Amino acid sequence: MNWLRRRQMQYNGMQSVLTLILQLTFTIITFRAIQSFHLETFFRHPPQGLPALIVLLAITIGYACGSFFAEFFIVLHGLLNMVR
User: Fold this and answer.
1) Is the pTM of this model over 0.70?
2) Which of 6, 13, 26, 72 is 20 to 30 Å apart from 48, CA to CA?
3) Distance in angstroms (rounded) separating the CA atoms of residues 22 and 24
């Protein structure tokens, strides 16, 4: 029974690492995509909080996309284990 618990903990650790990597990757991709829009050109006098807004927006969208794909891979893994 101890080996089963160890295997489950190992799977949870891998799942956590995968989720973290996906969320960071999507956050960086989103940040670069938002920066490419050059939002400051839409304002005559850009607000001082615009860079912070861009960062927070990138984190929000990146977190959502990363969580979606992490959950997708978890469900896919479960489906593949069910078929075996």
Assistant:
1) yes
2) 26
3) 6
* Token reading at 51: 């860079």
Count of structural domains within the chain:
1
> Is-contact 67 19, C-beta < 8 A?
yes
Q: How many CB atoms lie within 10 A of CB 33?
A: 12
Among 21, 23, 14, 18, which residue's Cα sits nearest to residue 65? Answer: 23
**pLDDT tens, position by position, 7-43:** 666 667 888 888 899 999 999 999 999 999 999 999 9
Domain containing 53 equals 2-83
Between CA 73 and CA 64 the distance in angstroms is: 14
Which helix (H) or strand (E) segment holds residue 35: the answer is helix 2-36
